[in-house]
Amino acid sequence: MENDNTEQFDKKNAYIPQEPDGQAFFDDGREIDLLHFVYNHSSINSMRNSPSGVWKAIDEYAQTKKYLMNVGSTKGQLVSKLIAERKPRYMVELGGYVGYSALHFGKALRDAGGIRYFSLERNPEFGAVMMALIELAGLSDVVKVVIGTSAESIKRLHAGGELEVIDMMFLDHYKPAYVVDLKLCEHLGLVRPGTVLAADNVVRPGNPPYLEYVRSTVKVKKARLNSEGPEIVDSNEFTSCRTMYNDKTEYDSLRSEVNGTPYLIYESKLLKAFEPTGEIDGIEITKCIGEESE
Question: What DSSP line would sit under 36-103, residue for residue?
Fold first, then answer.
């Protein structure tokens, strides 16, 4: 099932294009440069306690200085609308980067009466930038930035009693890890009937293994588990991810620590929308609508 949200794109709001393959487009100092740009901005005082003020400054940097791999306003509005409709209490984001999505979704969660937005980010420098911008926006009471690999952070939050259920999860980190981390959340009982998943970049660059998993029936997932055993994700299947990360990640292949819960029933659809540069992308919205008995 597919919904198209690509009727128009305002080119005047487009980000600078992403650098060509082989050239760095993140983790080359631009994230720290962004922080200086925001705090030296002429409108800094009006940004205080204003999430929209801060994310507009981030947009301005990406439109006039250097590209930033943010979710962008078009997709950000789609997910924010979903948060307003579903009213999650606890939301988890995998891949926080500089905090753009946490600003959008943390505000939406707070406005909807939510309790906590966990933004998980592997890179400590990105996490530091994010924390500074979240504090500036006045969202520190809702958004918690967690530094570390996604799997270790999920397990640590669960073991410490901070995270007992995920009402909504936004996946926007290392693409081969989408299925692996979802299965971990299933195994820990964090994903239950009522949980909503929003997975970014399923069109550009694409994530066929994730789409196959969330669109599969219980029967298909059980059969695959019985025949193949634990999930092994080879990042060679994600050519664009290998180019994107180069030596910045230790992930050459990922193996599921757990089998997940194949008995969960998902209902999934693709929402096509724009990248902030204007290219067509999509977010896969998946709802857990039940669980079959073993």
Answer: HHHHTSTTHHHHTT-HHHHHHHHHHHHHHT------HHHHHHHHHHHHHHH--SEEEEE--TTSHHHH
